Every structure is written in C-alpha cells, then in structure tokens.
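pinning this so it doesn't scroll away 📌
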Amino acid sequence: MGRGMRTLLLGCGGLLVAACLCVGVVSVATGQLLGGLLGVVNEVIQPPYGVGSRPLPAGPLTETMLPPQVGGFMRGALARAAAGGNQATYDRDGLRVDARAVYYTSATEAQEQVRRIYQALTSTRTVSFLEQGDPTTLRVVYNNGRARMVWSRGRYLFDVQAPAESGLDAFMTAFPY
C-alpha cells in the first residue's frame, strides 16, 4: 500500500482487530470493546511534536545529541545506556525526564529499532505509530501513566520517557531535534 494507507492488525488473545488507515489519524478504540487490554492505537500521518521538520544534530557527539539544557530542563550526568548509545536524566523543578540518544550505522538500522520497540509494547493505554521512513515515530502512554516518545531521523534515534504525558509534552516541546 502507499504512504498514508495501510492495514493495522492487532492481536489480543484470540481476538484480531483490523483497521484500514487512509487519511489523517484513524483510531482503533479498544478500551471497553476488548476488555481494556490494548488501549487505544492511533496510526498517524504527521509525526508527533513536529519532529520530522526539526533540524538534525550537528554530529554524533553526545553533547550535541543530548544538550545540557532543554527549555527549563537541565541535564544530569551522561552515561552509557544498556540498550546502546548514551543516556541522561533531565530535571525541571523535580520533574525528571530520561533521554537516550544513539547514532546508528544506517538510517534503516535506526528505523528498525523504533519498530522493535513498537512490537515489544505491553500494558499501553494509547499508542501512536508512524512508519513512513524518515522519521519513524512511536508515542506511547502506558497504563501506569508513564509516557514515551521514540523516533529516528536519519541515523539518529532518540528515546524520551517521562512519568506522565504532561511531562513528556513539556520536554518534547523544547527538545531541539
């Protein structure tokens, strides 16, 4: 199928939900229908937070990829991430947001990592997934209220997690990439 039109199949036990996605944002609401096991899944046409139109970092240096300050958020110490790349915790008045940045050997490898994270999701309330090449994006709100945004741009992958959707929104509005 062409860009912006695809079939999304979701499995939940013995149930399978299919949605034909044609234009704009199409939601498959599953909360009460499927016992709340899947939450709401959105297939989006535009990347969340406008990440597709943001600039790329100047290079693969961690200082550039995870800047010392993002809006009112100040970055803590940089560390190697167990999942690859580097990570840091940003703080703004007690609101802590974790960010990870990875520079892959190819754009395809970065996009594949977003797909792998998407395929491993469990216990979600809402999911927005966009797979159109560059960027590939995933925005998740988990049942426990935590929120996550993962996206690839070229060879870069960013993974941001916050304790609540409002915290993710505040950080992502200010994040430069």
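📌 and the second one:
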Amino acid sequence: MHTSDSNGVANSRWPDALEELAMSVRTNGFDAYGYHPDTILCSAQVSNNAGDCFQVGQFTDLKGQCSWLLFTWPPVYYLVPPEIDVLDVCLAVLRMGRYGGKVFPDSIVDQFQLVRMSNKEFNDAFGFD
C-alpha cells in the first residue's frame, strides 16, 4: 500500500491506521479497499460470493477525541468505544455474511457496545454540515 513519490519519500493512500486495518481484514479472507481518502470499504464479498459491506473510518470529534466509526447506508453510524478493537468488530460483522446492509444486528451492537448514531448526530458530534 505504501508507494514512493518522485523523491523516493514513502506515502500512502490512507492514514496508517486505515491501511493496517484494510490489510488485516484482507488477511482474514475478506475484502477492504479505499472508498474515500479517510475511509475504507469492508466487504464480505470475495470473488462471486454474496455479502454486505460497510465503511470504516477514524474521525476526530469537536472535543478532539479520535474515534473509529463504522457506517452503513442510508447511513447509520456506529461509534466504536476506545477499549474495543475495531478489527474485531469488522470481522464479526463480515463473518455474519448477509445482514441486510442497513443496520447491524443488535447482537453485534450489544457485544461490542457500539453507539448507534443518526446522520444528524454524527454531523453534530464531528462538525460536518
């Protein structure tokens, strides 16, 4: 994932934490790739197997706290508590296979103590309009 510019200086498509997460997801047999400069898309679909996908990113809220968030469409955001390993959450969702792609099941939300946020709550907390 690291490349070098014309001066031989290493650079990456994503921040190191996202790059590491994407590589770990792929190492576990799933797909992960850049979606936006600050997010990756994780997918249970490998080859022609069906599966749902979600985005993952690290965002800094208005209080300066950096947090991992997973989000689905339309969107629904899930704040990952700092003591929870985001890779564990990603793999648990991916291992479920098809879940409908809109909201994570309560069992996943409860197991990892995820905080479900609406689009407005996300925008208010992280300063997006």
